[in-house]
Amino acid sequence: MVGRFVTRTLALALLTALAQIAYYGLVGYRTVPQKVRLIDDYRPGLLDVVYFGDSTTVDSCPGDADCRPLPKMIGDALPHARVLPITHYAYHMGLYRAFCRRLAAAERPPAAAVVPINLRSFSVQWDRSPLWQFEKEQFLIDHPGFLARAFWRPLAVFRAVELNPLSMEAFGEVPVYAGATLAGQAADFEFMDPDADREAYHAAHFIYRYQYALSRDHRRLEALLDVVRMLEAAGATPVLYITPIDYQTGERYHGPAFTQQIEANVAVIQAALAECGAEAIDLSRALPPDAFCYGQHIHEHLDQEGRAFVAAQILPPIRAALASRLDTPQN
């Protein structure tokens, strides 16, 4: 009796597995995120530039006559190169690291990889949000094999792959600091009503998004260093820049201490990068408030002049990387 039960259970498991494989073979690849498919299909060219990024690299502002995203601006300025954007709202350094592992293993890595360093991505608001972990993408990037991808959903259902390591309830209890001072918990900021008092909302969210004290052991900073090391070891030039933020408005709400914390966080990033001989172009305090366009929610989206300014700052090191690739004998 027990033997018959075991046999039937095994037969059912086998049929289920075959059905899952058949389903993935028929329609599964269409469920793979487009940016993951891009890296799957990557065929290296001599003059490739990969541009990583979050929404700040692609969104424009109302009233812009030139709505080109930053990767398109760079591509238009480099007609003999191919610029591949790997961008999506809320992408973070952990995802860039996963993508770079695949790029570093390519037959020929890109000549350059542009890596924006968004200061907000280190904050509790972004780094710890359960909505912005992209566990599925990271699993699919790291497991390009047919069977692993065919079974990712059952693995997730049975929690062999953890899709949401932090619940929304636990996220709400994460402490938020302004420097060394406790400013509240994530829920205190997440559940504020921006329409009740817009000024109070913005004042609080400039703290929530930018006033943490960055530590050297932050996981996104460690991921950034991994990105730099992988790219350099593979022969690709990392082009690093710290994205502009509306620091002047932050200072209007919180005084000079706001900008001092920004400067301190930038210094931690630069010191960490110096450990592997790298440096980021610091654009964090490069633009005035009118270069940004946000309504309720504070972010780093730039108008056309702001995006053109960023493009102009990063074009020289990209051009240098492309020239170096041309000067290097190719196998």
Summarize the structure.
The protein is an alpha/beta fold. Helix content is 50%, strand content 11%. The chain is built from 15 helices and seven strands.
Structure notes:
It is built from 15 helices and seven strands. It is α/β, with parallel strands linked by helices and 331 residues long. The chain folds into two domains: 31 residues; 248 residues, 3-Layer(aba) Sandwich (Rossmann fold), CATH 3.40.50.1110. β1, α3 and β2 form a beta-alpha-beta unit. The chain is globular. The protein starts with a helix and ends with a helix. 33% of the residues are buried.
Q: Give the distance, in angstroms, between the N- and C-terminal Cα atoms.
A: 65 Å
CATH superfamily of the largest domain: SGNH hydrolase
Instruction: Please list the strands of the largest sheet in the order they lie side by side.
Output: 2-1-3-6-7
**What is the gyration radius calculated from CA atoms?**
22 Å
Primary descriptors:
331 residues, two-stranded antiparallel sheet, 15 helices, 7 strands, 50% helix, Rossmann fold, alpha/beta
Write the layout of secondary structure elements.
Layout: H1 2-27, H2 34-40, E1 48-53, H3 70-77, E2 82-87, H4 93-104, E3 112-117, H5 124-127, H6 135-142, H7 146-150, H8 152-157, H9 168-172, E4 175-178, E5 181-185, H10 186-190, H11 198-210, H12 219-234, E6 237-242, H13 247-254, H14 256-274, E7 281-282, H15 304-327
